[in-house]
Amino acid sequence: MEKEIKTRAFVRAAAIFVLMFLLICVSAFVKYRAYGSFNDNGRDYSLILALAGSGVCVLLLLVSLFTYFIYSRQTMIEKTKELAAICTAVVLSCVVCIGVSALGLFYMPMALAAFVLVPLSARRDVFIANIVTNLIVSVILLFESIMGSKVEAIPVVAMMIIGIFTGSIVAYTMSDVVRRVIYVMRGIAIGATTLALLFVSSLIVNTFYFVDEIGFLCIPAFGQVLVGLLLQPVFESVFNILTNTKLTELTDHNAPLIKMLINDALGTFNHSITVASFAEVCALRIGENPYLAKACAYYHDVGKIKNPTFFSENQSGYNPHDELLPEVSAKILRAHTTDGYELCLKHHIPIEVASVTLQHHGTLPMAVFYAKAKKLTDGDVDINEYSYHGETPVTKIAAIIMICDACEAALRARNKPTGAEVEAIVGGIINDRIARRQFDNCDITLRDLNIIKHTITGLYGGLYHERVQYPSGKAGGNA
Ligand SMILES: [Fe+2]
Ligand SMILES: [Fe+2]
């Protein structure tokens, strides 16, 4: 698994090099068209900016990769990808802004980086990336102003303030947007606000740049919304960043692997849905991404598609394990984790989701077959042969899935447990995983585990409560 992840990281590093090279070429070309020369008395700032930006981006990427190779942790990969995406968006936005300025249009799409990054990164990162972009562009324009070009300093400062302001609005009002249409509507509203602010600032600083060019101003003000929308899927795929939109698409019942689950292992599909309903709320309560938790729950058992009838939730009376030796049964059960991981990779499911298929059973023993083997051999059994050989959870989400998965199975096996019994079962499962050191590689806290315990207990009560019997003897079906 790690080898594949490292290979992917290298491919992304190579992609960034190519992208940076293209940016430099585009930037140089724009300057050439504007001034008729690549070196207009030393004022080819866009080229210098692109080169410096590329250098910083590549350096940060190499440092991230180096750190990753030392620690080999999944969290490092996520940080590497996000860092690379943020650097690229900042450099790209700076080059576009300087390119637009070289074409003679005064107002630039200063919030472009924010529009590109808003579904890909955390709010704070988008906020900082937008400020950095605005500062870089403003410093270059002020430098041009000092060097005697037609650019004036006061409108540049006004534009920077507006760029930082509108970019911050983007970061803090659009980061939860999942539907593209809402993104466009809010983007247009922010574009209109930008135009209004430019107009007002133009009156305040008494320059007519903005008023004279109000028609042209619409192009970058609204154009950045559409360019951002077009670039988001490109960034998603180049840097393999998981967005809430992508996660929502993964849990669509028409997604290929989910369809296979519905057709070939309906019991597993139902189990996964219930695990998802627990995991989503648990993730929300401990500050993790509920969309990611839901997707991981949907895919955690896809490996069962290969041998669906060997898993109890897909059996109806006949159990093939009755005719098998316990070591053969254990082998079949164990395989669903690696089979699931391979299926996920084959269907291009993101690594954050795929890795949970390997981690959701950790290194836990398969109690039923271990007990059966002990009976057959008078107790002389190596527990390792009856345990899962996967990885233990490395993220809080993987730990949530491990707990919710076991709780769903244990609670389903019980006949109408009381609230106190449910709490005891869930608490017992969590304590057992702690005792077996399943959470040693992830940063889940005892506080998180306590919240998860109470969440599952509460949710179970809500899911399986008694329904009022209608006079006809049927449970009510109108609610
Ligand atoms: Fe499983
Ligand atoms: Fe499961």
- Tell me the quaternary state: single chain
Strand content: under 5%
Task: Give helix and strand order, one letter per element, not per position.
Answer: HHHHHHHHHHHHHHHHHHH
* CA-atom Rg in angstroms: 28 Å
Shape estimate: elongated
> How many DSSP E strands?
0
Largest sheet: none
**Number of helical elements:** 19
> Which cofactor or ligand species appear?
fe (ii) ion
- How many structural domains are formed by the residues? 2
Q: Assign the structural class, choosing from mainly alpha, mainly beta, alpha/beta, alpha+beta, or little secondary structure.
A: mainly alpha
Separation of termini?
A: 46 Å
In terms of per-residue confidence, which ranges show pLDDT below 50 for 5 or more consecutive residues? 473-479
Residue share in helices?
A: 55-70%
Report the average pLDDT across residues.
81
Based on the model shown, name its key terms:
single chain; 479 residues; 2 domains; 19 helices; 0% strand; elongated; disordered C terminus; binds fe (ii) ion
Secondary structure blueprint with pairings:
Layout: H1 2-35, H2 45-71, H3 74-102, H4 112-117, H5 123-146, H6 153-173, H7 180-204, H8 209-212, H9 214-238, H10 244-250, H11 256-264, H12 266-285, H13 290-299, H14 326-346, H15 351-359, H16 367-376, H17 396-413, H18 419-435, H19 446-463
Helix pairs in contact: 1-2, 1-3, 2-3, 3-5, 5-6, 6-7, 7-9, 10-13, 11-12, 12-13, 12-17, 12-19, 13-15, 13-17, 14-15, 14-16, 17-18, 18-19
This protein binds fe (ii) ion (2 copies).
